[in-house]
From TrEMBL:
Domain of life: Bacteria
Luciferase-like domain boundaries: 33-362
One MF annotation (Gene Ontology) recorded for this entry: monooxygenase activity
Protein name: Flavin-dependent oxidoreductase, luciferase family (Includes alkanesulfonate monooxygenase SsuD and methylene tetrahydromethanopterin reductase)
Family membership noted in the UniProt record: Belongs to the NtaA/SnaA/DszA monooxygenase family.
Entry keyword annotation includes Repeat: no
Oxidoreductase among keywords: yes
UniProt entry keywords in alphabetical sequence: Flavoprotein, FMN, Monooxygenase, Oxidoreductase
Organism: Rhodococcus rhodochrous J3
Length: 422
């Protein structure tokens, strides 16, 4: 590889590992944001390109038909809003990209355009928007809709939504947009340093990939395994080429949860404990799967594959991956041996894991990784340190991760590579 990877960190603004060992002295202090601000500073110290703040706005009832398992497992609730946290992070950091998640199905476009422009100014050109269309009908009800639109229609609406917000960000005095779904007459958003946020997206279905290829500067994805990773990236690049664009204008990152140890055997034992069906994490993972697929897995036989006729109006590509993985096996077996949202199993010493990341990027031709603490684990400083103090320096020594930030805005830095000290 001749340029360092792009590295991001995906995080929820919700309880940290409050009820687990290694929770730290202040596990209940997550609500004041200080844990996350500290985390952002640590990411910046390690020259991570950006932090991505996840969002959803529901207490799901998908598992068991009520909220009991959800609160027990703390998968999607309780949760704070990521936007004020992004503002706080941007005041305490100076180089890290700060990406917030906002849904095109839940925010009016003029509100979103202004909030994103304001965050861009507060961060002096380090702002990004993770564009999602949401998949929970409960979220729709919170904003006065009966239910969400059908999966592919959400992306058609999102496409028009991006045309509206692009006009708002372009700095004309006022806009007069009259489309199929949106009519917006109004003042534009204030001009911001990057003009528009770095656009991030995670579409995995054909409609989602069409949308991502059309708009995204940065794609975060979880195709599982080298072949699927390559196929996904090729699919995005083909789409961009077909519409006459330059495929290198968009970076494709893969979500991973590295599990690190002093030795490979120690890391493997850690993985077995973390994924064990007997561990506390297991409920979190099943509930999470219910949330993203809107399928009540409490009524399913966990010792069987996911039925091939299971469908969802939620995150289709993630359900399809789980169906494929459980074929000829069972949900309990699959979740017992691998992460539910990880493109590659990265288990071992920092050197072993760096080897695997290097090899994957060489074969896939991808642009980097989105790190996150998956496997049902809640984030702790200990996990953060293992990655930032163990794995990242190993990548830096090999010239695979940057050890200094380039000048410029988040978008300019993404477009350019920085030679590392290697
Ligand atoms: C890395 C990653 C992060 C995501 N973050 C969010 C999020 O914060 N909020 C949300 O509602 N959906 C989130 N999603 C779901 C995606 O927006 C999308 O629905 C999903 O990848 C399935 O793709 P599809 O909609 O094309 O089927 C995320 C997905 C991935 C892979």
């Amino acid at each position: 590889m001749n340029e360092p990877m792009t590295l991001g960190w995906f995080v929820n603004y919700m309880p940290t590992g409050w009820n687990r060992p290694w929770a730290g002295p202040d596990p209940r202090a997550w609500t004041d944001g200080s844990f996350y601000v500290d985390m952002a500073k640590a990411l910046e110290r390690s020259c991570i390109d950006f932090v991505m703040l996840e969002d959803s706005s529901v207490v799901p009832e998908n598992f068991g038909g009520d909220m009991v398992a959800e609160f027990k497992a703390t998968v999607k609730a309780p949760k704070h809003d990521p936007l004020p946290l992004a503002a706080a992070i941007s005041q305490e950091t100076s180089r890290l990209g700060v990406v917030t998640t906002m849904s095109t199905s839940l925010y009016p476009p003029d509100r979103l355009a202004r909030m994103q422009a304001t965050l861009d100014e507060l961060s002096d050109g380090r702002n990004g928007w993770n564009i999602v269309t949401s998949f929970e009908d409960l979220a729709a009800r919170n904003v006065g809709l009966e239910k969400l639109w059908e999966h592919d229609e959400r992306y058609l609406r999102a496409d028009e939504y991006l045309r509206v917000t692009s006009e708002m960000w372009s700095g004309t005095d006022g806009i007069d947009f009259d489309g199929r779904y949106y009519r917006v007459n109004g003042p534009s958003a204030p001009m911001s340093r990057q003009e528009r946020p770095v656009l991030c997206q995670a579409g995995g279905s054909p409609a989602g990939m069409d949308f991502a290829a059309e708009w995204a500067d940065l794609i975060v994805s979880v195709p599982v395994g080298i072949d699927a990773m390559k196929k996904y990236r090729d699919g995005i690049r083909e789409r961009i080429e077909r519409s006459g664009g330059d495929p290198d204008r968009c970076r494709v990152l893969y979500m991973v949860t590295p599990i690190l140890g002093e030795t490979d055997a120690e890391a493997a034992a850690k993985r077995d404990r973390m994924y064990s069906p007997e561990s506390d994490n297991f409920l979190r993972r099943i509930v999470q799967l219910s949330n993203i697929s809107e399928i009540d897995f409490s009524t399913y036989d966990l010792d069987a594959p996911i039925p091939s006729d299971a469908t969802t109006n939620g995150a289709q590509s993630i359900l399809d991956t789980m169906k494929r993985l459980t074929e000829g096996s069972s949900l309990r077996q699959v979740l017992g041996s691998t992460g539910e949202s990880t493109s590659l199993d990265l288990v071992g010493t920092p050197a072993t894991v760096a080897d695997r990341m290097e090899e994957a990027m060489e074969i896939v031709g991808g642009d980097g990784f989105l790190l996150f603490h998956g496997g049902g684990g809640l984030i702790t400083r200990r996990y953060l340190d293992e990655v930032l103090d163990g794995l990242v320096p190993e990548l830096q020594r090999r010239g695979l991760a940057r050890n200094e930030y380039a000048e410029g805005t988040f978008r300019e830095r993404l477009a350019r590579s920085v030679p590392t000290g290697g």
